[in-house]
Design a protein that fits this description.
By secondary structure, this protein is of the alpha/beta class. It folds into 2 domains: 71 residues, no CATH class; 109 residues, Rossmann fold, CATH 3.40.50. 54% of the residues lie in helices and 9% in strands. The protein has 12 helices and 6 strands. α4 packs antiparallel against α5 and α4 packs across α7. The longest helix has 15 residues. The two termini are 25 Å apart.
């Protein structure tokens, strides 16, 4: 199911030091998702920075809250959910080269192991970059006085690798800010893992219309 009301993880408030407002907002999120959290329903989050709020910052804001603890334990990224919660899942095959960049929160808190394993199981030719941060870091790269730093961070590994990739290579990054940095400074479009799975499924149906 998809929540009927629009929910935010509260990270924009948290990142700018508005901790009281972030805590108030997250209380509302836990209330709106209360039935699902209490029932043990997995919460699949597509954006790594949002998942990290539930998996990490929530502990600091609500150290004694039992529902917050359950939400932390029930939060999954898509790759983690498909591999650990649904171990029998077999993704569609995709015979393409993939250049993978991991979001900082993804690498720091959840690792890229599930993402890499899932992509390899699709038969892609995978290159997983040791690229550090993309440099955008949420709104950091949009601030005038930090733009050059943001760009320099991206130019260390990620941006040259993207520019050097063949046109048919798929650039994959689950982080919204990472995809924004790639688009603005290389002109290439980066895809979320969910989009890659959809592409593979579409191509599979086209090749096998009886499916």
């Amino acid at each position: 199911m998809i929540p009927q009301s629009q929910l935010c993880c509260g990270r924009p408030l948290y990142d700018f030091g508005m901790l009281d407002r972030a805590k108030e907002y997250l209380s509302r999120v836990m209330q709106l998702l209360g039935a699902e959290i209490d029932a043990g329903v997995p919460i699949v989050v597509l954006e790594p920075s949002c998942a990290s709020v539930f998996r990490d910052e929530l502990r600091g804001l609500f150290p004694e809250d039992s529902r917050a603890k359950r939400l932390r334990e029930q939060t999954f990224l898509l790759s983690q959910f498909l591999r650990s919660y649904n171990p029998g899942y077999k993704p569609p095959v995709l015979h393409r080269k993939v250049l993978l960049h991991g979001h900082c929160h993804h690498k720091a808190l959840m690792t890229l192991t599930d993402e890499e394993a899932l992509l390899r199981s699709m038969s892609v030719e995978l290159e997983s970059l040791d690229s550090g941060c993309c440099g955008m870091a949420g709104s950091f790269g949009f601030e005038r006085e930090k733009y050059e730093i943001s760009r320099a961070v991206g130019e260390r590994v990620l941006l040259p690798a993207v520019r050097g990739a063949a046109p048919e290579t798929l650039i994959v990054s689950d982080g919204f800010s990472c995809r924004e940095q790639i688009a603005q400074l290389t002109g290439r479009r980066a895809f979320h893992l969910a989009e890659i799975l959809k592409l593979a499924a579409t191509l599979s149906r086209s090749a096998n219309p009886e499916l």
